[in-house]
Design a protein that fits this description.
15 helices, alpha/beta, Transcription Regulator spoIIAA, 471 residues, 20% strand, globular, Rossmann fold, six-stranded parallel sheet, 19 strands, 4 domains, binds S-adenosyl-L-homocysteine, binds FE3-S4 cluster, binds iron/sulfur cluster
C-alpha cells in the first residue's frame, strides 16, 4: 500500500474508534522515555489518541488506556517499564484498562519475549516502524478482543500527515530524519530505529510554516545525526525534491531562518564527523539559529573513540571546536559523554577530563556505559567493573559541576535575550524562560511576556538556573 493510502486507512480507523467511544468520556495516560525523538513520536501518539476520543489524564487510576513509549539506550529504562507494568496489573484486573507499549524497546526480541511471558496482560505492542498504525492496532484490540503485536524489523517509511498534539505552544520539535547509519559500537539505536532516511524538504518547511502561523517561536530540528540530513539520499541517488533551495542540512537551516514568526532554531544531535564548513557558516550567519551547539564527544581518548567507532580523534574534535569558536561569535557548547566503555583505562579516561577542561562545555550529559544486547560493545571482553565506572563518573561530575559554577558567574551583570516560557514550576509568582545558550532564567514579570523574547539582566546564579530582572 502506498504511504498516502496507508494514512487514509489509519484515519478511517481513527473514525471507527471514535464512533465506538462516543459519549464514554474515556481517558488515557502516556509515559514517554528516552530522547526528544521519542517525545515527538509521543506527541503523534497523543494526537491519534485524542482524535479517537480519549482525553489525557496524569492519574493512572482514571485511565482507560495506558500508553508507554519506550527507550532502550541504557538499561535503567527497562527496570522502569517493568516496574510500571507490575503496578498496572491490578488496574487491568479491576477495570480492564487497555495497555499499549510502543517505541524502541519493542524492537528488541528478548523484551517482547519477556512481556509475553511475564506480562501477558499487555494488549498492544507496536514498534518504531509501525507507530502510524496505532489506530488500527487499538481498533482491532478493542473490537476483536485479542492481543496485538505489530512490530516489523525492516526499515520503516516516513509517514506524513499524522495528527499531532504538541506539549507546548511556544516551542515545537520537528523530526527531520529517522534512523541512524553510524553504528557506534556501544549504541542500540541503529538496530531499533533502522537506517537513516530524511524527510522531504517541502514537508519540513511546510510544517515549520504552519507552526509559525500557530504562534510557535522556537523550533528544534530532530534526528540522530541531523548534519547528515539528505546525505544518504544523495549517496544512493534516491530522488528527492529540492524545495526553497534545500538540499543539505546547511541549506535547511538557511531556509528555516527565513520563515517569519519563528525566532529561534535549535537542532539535536549533530555528529562531529559530519560537521562540514557549510554547516558552521550557516550557524554563524543565520541570526535565528541559537549559538549553543550540542557536539557529542563520548570520549576524549583517541583509542577509545576508535573502539567506539566514532570516526574522529581527540585532536580532530578539539580542532573542530577551535574552528567553530573562531567562526561563530558567542558560541557555547554542550555534549554527551560515556564513562567506562569496555577497555577504557584510568589514563584514557584522563583524556576525557582533559577535553572537558579545555572546551568548558555549557552543559554535559554524562552516562555510565550500559551493555546493550546485540551491539559490538556488549561482546567486548574487557568490560570495566561497576565500581570503577562509578568512580570515574563521580570524578567527571565534580569537574563538570565546578565548571558550571564558574561559567554561571560569568552571566552575572550580562543582558540576555530570554524566550519566556511560562510560570516557574516551583514558584508561581515568577516567570521562567531560557537564554540562547538554553540556561533557565527565572524572574518577576507580567504574564503578558509569555511567548516573547525579552532582555533580562542576570542578577544572581544558582547551580541549575539564573535569576534575572527586566532590563
Ligand atoms: N545520536 C545521538 C544521540 C544518541 S543517544 C548522538 O550520536 O549523539 C544519546 C546518548 O546516549 C549518546 O550520545 C550517548 O552518550 C548515550 N549512550 C548511547 N548508548 C549508550 C550506552 N550503551 N551506554 C551509555 N550511554 C549510551
Ligand atoms: Fe547511536 Fe552513534 Fe547513531 Fe548516535 S550516531 S544514534 S550514538 S549509533
Ligand atoms: Fe532511546 Fe530510542 Fe531515543 S533508544 S534515546 S528513545 S531513539
Amino acid at each position: 500500500m502506498n504511504k498516502e493510502k496507508e494514512i487514509e486507512e489509519q484515519k478511517s480507523y481513527i473514525n471507527k474508534v471514535k464512533e465506538m467511544n462516543k459519549g464514554k468520556d474515556l481517558k488515557y495516560t502516556i509515559l514517554t522515555m528516552g530522547c526528544q525523538l521519542n517525545e515527538n513520536d509521543s506527541e503523534k501518539i497523543c494526537g491519534m489518541a485524542e482524535e479517537m476520543g480519549y482525553t489525557k489524564t496524569q492519574n493512572q487510576k482514571d485511565a482507560d488506556l495506558a500508553i508507554f513509549n519506550t527507550c532502550c539506550v541504557r538499561e535503567n529504562a527497562e527496570d522502569k517499564l517493568f516496574g510500571k507494568l507490575g503496578e498496572l496489573k491490578k488496574l487491568k484486573e479491576q477495570k480492564g484498562i487497555i495497555i499499549a507499549i510502543g517505541g524502541c524497546m519493542m524492537q528488541e526480541k528478548h523484551i517482547i519475549d519477556k512481556i509475553k511471558e511475564s506480562y501477558p496482560f499487555v494488549d498492544i505492542v507496536f514498534g518504531t516502524h509501525t507507530l502510524h498504525k496505532f489506530p488500527e492496532d487499538l481498533y482491532k484490540s478493542i473490537q476483536e478482543k485479542r492481543k496485538i503485536e505489530d512490530v516489523i524489523d525492516i526499515d520503516g517509511e516516513i509517514y506524513e500527515g499524522l495528527p499531532i498534539k504538541r506539549d507546548s505552544n511556544i516551542k515545537a520539535s520537528v523530526t527531520i530524519m529517522n534512523g541512524c547509519n553510524n553504528f557506534c559500537s556501544y549504541c542500540i539505536v541503529p538496530y531499533v530505529r533502522g537506517r537513516e532516511r530524511s524527510r522531504n524538504p517541502r514537508d519540513i518547511i511546510n510544517e515549520v510554516r504552519e507552526l509559525a502561523k500557530q504562534g510557535y517561536k522556537e523550533i528544534t530540528l530532530l534526528g540522530q545525526n541531523v548534519n547528515s540530513y539528505l546525505r544518504v539520499e544523495k549517496e544512493k541517488n534516491i530522488e528527492f525534491e529540492e524545495y526553497e533551495g534545500v538540499n543539505s542540512f546547511a541549506t535547511l537551516l538557511t531556509a528555516i531562518n527565513k520563515i517569519d514568526g519563528i525566532e529561534r532554531i535549535r537542532f539535536v544531535s549533530p555528529h562531529p564527523k559530519d560537521f562540514t564548513d557549510d554547516v558552521i557558516d550557516a550557524i554563524a550567519k543565520c541570526e535565528k539559529v541559537c549559538k549553543l551547539v550540542h557536539l557529542p564527544l563520548q570520549s576524549g581518548n583517541t583509542k577509545v573513540l576508535k573502539e567506539m567507532n566514532r570516526k574522529y580523534t581527540k585532536e580532530q574534535y578539539l580542532n573542530l571546536v577551535e574552528k567553530m569558536k573562531n567562526r561563530i561569535p558567542n558560541l557555547t557548547l554542550s555534549t554527551d559523554i560515556i564513562v567506562g566503555f569496555p577497555g577504557e583505562t584510568d589514563e584514557e579516561f584522563e583524556d576525557t577530563l582533559d577535553v572537558v577542561r579545555k572546551v568548558k562545555f555549557e552543559q554535559v550529559y554524562m552516562f555510565i556505559y550500559s551493555r546493550r544486547v546485540g551491539t559490538p560493545g556488549d561482546k567486548m571482553e574487557n568490560q570495566v567493573p561497576d565500581d570503577i565506572k562509578h568512580v570515574r563518573f563521580d570524578k567527571l561530575k565534580s569537574l563538570v559541576e565546578s565548571q558550571i559554577e564558574e561559567n554561571n558567574k560569568k552571566y552575572i551583570g550580562t543582558i540576555q535575550k530570554v524566550l519566556v516560557e511560562g510560570e516557574s514550576k516551583n514558584n508561581k509568582e515568577m516567570l521562567t524562560g531560557r537564554t540562547d545558550s538554553n540556561k533557565v532564567v527565572i524572574f518577576e514579570g507580567n504574564k503578558d511576556l509569555i511567548n516573547k523574547i525579552i532582555n533580562l539582566e542576570i542578577v544572581s546564579e544558582h547551580m541549575w538556573y539564573l535569576k534575572g530582572k527586566e532590563f
